[in-house]
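Dear Dr. V.,

Thank you for agreeing to look over these. As mentioned in my earlier message, I'm a first-year student in the group and I'm still getting used to reading structure tokens, so any feedback on how I've presented them would be very welcome. I ran two proteins. I've put each sequence directly above its structure. The first is here:
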Amino acid sequence: IDNFNITSNSRKIGALAGFTENATIENVKVINSMVKGFRDVGILIGKTQGTTVKRVMTEGTVKGEMAVGGLIGSSSVSLSLENVYTNAKVDSTISHSGGVIGFTQNIVSMKSVYSTSAVTG
């Protein structure tokens, strides 16, 4: 996915999906993206539940008020990440921001996860 741009006042905003549940996402590259939303905002996925992400790369800018991430905005239940790279400018105006995940409520399994994101908020 190249040159994806979205601006919304909604929750659960991402280039691939706003929300995933019990999903497996593999072999995806999102580059030159601009994703803006309210809460649960990620370059790839806004919010996940029980999701596995493998061999994924994201690059771009992501902005929101809370739960803003270079890959995923927020995660509840379980999340598994493997061979993931993020290079994003992440900006949260209130709180909960991260280069990979903005906010998580449960255990995240990570293997070969790398981020060079710049994070504010």
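The second protein is here, in the same arrangement:
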Amino acid sequence: MRYNPDIQDHNNLQGVKTGMSFRRYVFPLAGAALACASVLLTGCGGSSADASSTAAAAGKTPISVKTSSPQDAATKTSIPDGAPQIDQKNLTFMPNKLTVKVGDTVYFLNSDSVIHTIDVSGKNISGNMKPGQVVTWQFPKAGQYKISCDYHPAMNATITVQ
């Protein structure tokens, strides 16, 4: 190729008159696309607000809800031996039927590799539960409570409170 004094970019002799340089125009676009994708994926983690602060903000009396994150393994809520619990594993609640007394603390554990929620009779009490997290909840009065997951509608359990 011959030198052309009308082209400002002498490192790219094709310049803007005859075509675009692949590296000069495509790589920045690919970088911008990756940056947008990472922002979108980061936003999928959900809210960091717990159920009790959400209830308080809505003017409702929160029921005891405690969560533990896997990052806090040393201070993670441990489940006492014999305590009533429901585990989320293989996209099911195990056990799917549980009977407790009024005021008992029930432990909900996410042993799955995906995010779950704990809905008690249609109200989300856990927010997004990451793998390894534990949520506790005390049932205030006798009755039958349906337990479900927002993300996995086939996950269902029933807790009977006497």
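From my reading of the second output: The helical segments are 15-18, 22-42, 51-57. The CA atoms of residues 121 and 146 lie 5 Å apart. Does that match how you would interpret it?

Kind regards,
E.
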